[in-house]
Structures are given as structure tokens and as C-alpha cells.
Amino acid sequence: MPQDQTKTYQAKVFVTLKPSILDPQGRTVERSLSHLGQQVSGVRVGKYIELQLEGERGEVESRLKDMAENVLSNPVMENVRWELEEAALEPA
Amino acid sequence: MPQDQTKTYQAKVFVTLKPSILDPQGRTVERSLSHLGQQVSGVRVGKYIELQLEGERGEVESRLKDMAENVLSNPVMENVRWELEEAALEPA
């Protein structure tokens, strides 16, 4: 059975305001778009964070969960989700 | 052949700084994580925007492309990509 290997992983973290929290930035974008003739609704502005981690898959997943929930987002006001994939090898 | 129908679509827009642009916010996050004992690299902080549009699929796609490229992002400094899907029906 192959041993779990240390690899470089690319993580993508999506932080969004909870639906019950007002989003003034989103409202502003919505009004600006409306003034430009673009009718849209429900604009919510969140954060999209990319980062790289090294380690074994399970350990990296657990570190990413910890960072996403406790550092990159505010659990009182925000929801967070993330994706993890092996980083593409850099061209030499 | 079914006619193209007016529907509500949910759009997700991802705005990231171009790789050549320095990201001081990302550097700060990286240092903060390092002080907390989390070694990560290549932290980049972008925006994640959700919005809803109504219309026919083709027209909505073209409006979204216009908004994403010309309003929601700055083409000089940022890259932008987006996803579009039919919005789930709200429970009555």
C-alpha cells in the first residue's frame, strides 16, 4: 500500500457573509449596476482566498479546516467553505 | 424546439489580482498565519461576488460577462472568471 506522501496543495477558500447579515458593499454594487442599466439582485460580496500548503493530505485538510474556520473567517458573521487540490508542478 | 425562457440565474464571480501584482493583504494574512504556527505560502486575497439576474440564458451570459469584465473587476490589475447556474426555486 503506498504511503501517504508530502505534497504541495493548492487551497481555495470562499468566505461569505451569513444570509442574515446586511451587506452594504453588495447593496452599493447593486445600485451602481442599476445606474449603469444592469438590473441584478441579491448582490453579496465575499472573499476568495488562495493559498498553498505542504504536507500529507489528511494533515493538510485538517490544518486548512482550522485556518478557514478560525482565522480566515469570522464564525459569528460569515460562512466559509474550501476546496483542496494537488498543486500543479511548476515548470522547471 | 423549446423556446428560450426567462429564468432567474445565480452568478458567482471570482476576482483575483493578476500574478504580477503585489498583494499586501495576502502577505499580511501569510505572516499572521505564520505567527500562529501555520506555514502556508502564496496567499492571495480576491473577491467572491454572488448575484442574481433574470432573462434568457444567452442574454444573461452576455450581460454577466460585461459586468464582470467592466464593472466588478479592474482589467488592468485583476483577472475575473464566473459561473452561471439556474437559481434554485425559493420555497413558497
Automatic annotation (TrEMBL), chains A, B:
GO MF, one annotated term: phosphoribosylformylglycinamidine synthase activity
Top enzyme category: ligase
GO cellular component terms, A-Z: cytoplasm
Catalysed reactions listed for this entry: N(2)-formyl-N(1)-(5-phospho-beta-D-ribosyl)glycinamide + L-glutamine + ATP + H2O = 2-formamido-N(1)-(5-O-phospho-beta-D-ribosyl)acetamidine + L-glutamate + ADP + phosphate + H(+)
Pfam families assigned to the protein according to its UniProt record, in alphabetical order: PurS
Homology family: Belongs to the PurS family.
Identification of the protein by name: Phosphoribosylformylglycinamidine synthase subunit PurS
Main function: Part of the phosphoribosylformylglycinamidine synthase complex involved in the purines biosynthetic pathway. Catalyzes the ATP-dependent conversion of formylglycinamide ribonucleotide (FGAR) and glutamine to yield formylglycinamidine ribonucleotide (FGAM) and glutamate. The FGAM synthase complex is composed of three subunits. PurQ produces an ammonia molecule by converting glutamine to glutamate. PurL transfers the ammonia molecule to FGAR to form FGAM in an ATP-dependent manner.
Organism (species): Deinococcus detaillensis
Record keywords: ATP-binding, Cytoplasm, Ligase, Nucleotide-binding, Purine biosynthesis
Gene3D superfamilies documented for this protein: Phosphoribosylformylglycinamidine synthase subunit PurS (3.30.1280.10)
Superkingdom of source: Bacteria
Subunit structure: Part of the FGAM synthase complex composed of 1 PurL, 1 PurQ and 2 PurS subunits.
UniProt-annotated location(s): Cytoplasm
GO BP annotation list: 'de novo' IMP biosynthetic process
Lineage: Bacteria, Thermotogati, Deinococcota, Deinococci, Deinococcales
EC number(s) on file: 6.3.5.3
Pathway per the UniProt entry: Purine metabolism; IMP biosynthesis via de novo pathway; 5-amino-1-(5-phospho-D-ribosyl)imidazole from N(2)-formyl-N(1)-(5-phospho-D-ribosyl)glycinamide: step 1/2
